[in-house]
Write a structure and sequence with these properties.
Blueprint lengths: L4 E9 L5 H11 L3 E13 L2 E7 L2 H14 L4 E4 L5 H11 L7 E3 L17 H8 L5 E2 L3 H8 L7 H12 L5 E4 L8 E7 L4 E7 L9 H14 L4 H17 L21
Parallel strand pairs: 1-2, 1-4, 4-5, 5-6, 6-7
Antiparallel strand pairs: 2-3, 7-8, 8-9
Length: 266
Amino acid sequence: MTQPIALTIAGSDSSGGAGIQADLKTFAAFGVYGASVITALTAQNTLGVRGVHQVPADFVTAQFQAVMDDLAVKAIKIGMVGNAAIIEILDEQIKQVPSVPVVLDPVMVASSGDHLLEADAVDALRIRLIPRAMLITPNLPEAAALLGEPVATSEAAIQDQGRRLLALGCRAVLIKGGHGEGPESIDYLMTDREVIALRAARLPTANTHGTGCSLSSAIAAGLAKGEPLVEAAQEAKRWITAAIAAADRLQVGHGHGPIHHFHRFD
């Protein structure tokens, strides 16, 4: 059996809970070999982001080409891209591999509130990368920011925003409900044919650092293994819910700690 390989394109989290580190842990948890292209270095921990150093766009290209020239990548996850220059080169590179499914997590703001995407890059993300994606996975604030609207607070408003995000050119949208309220955390997976509500109990923990990164990577891992999108999303939702439920067992840091990527192996 050929080893499934997935590529993450994202920023590095020095505390290990989000970004590249979370993506690679997620791939490993799903039995997928992970490769990486680093777009930015961050100095951060569970309390917040202290600094961001952007990787030059030409070196992002060099990393991408080195991986794709040698490894049989079956899925790509894109997280933090940082600026418009990196978005533009990723657009140019990804269109050279149209058969590889792309999961785009439009990371704009860290869970600590720190901005991770330059303001002038939002249009580039909307115009150049979203049309390249099989799936985009915004949370409620990110979906609103991409559309220049207030955050949706009802199921009807969420689905309306999802339909308009689909119109930007991606094949599917997963609007994550972690920032919502109520006893359930509901993610809405939308295509031009259906809407599927992925439901889970809302869990009482502050240790949710890297949740969005990890969920999108879990879906990419499923795609790398050849699973259909809906099946990959459903399995990822079950896995992330269990990883959040087990997060308090880790006791990492003094702020918003990470989820437990390897809860299955405890």
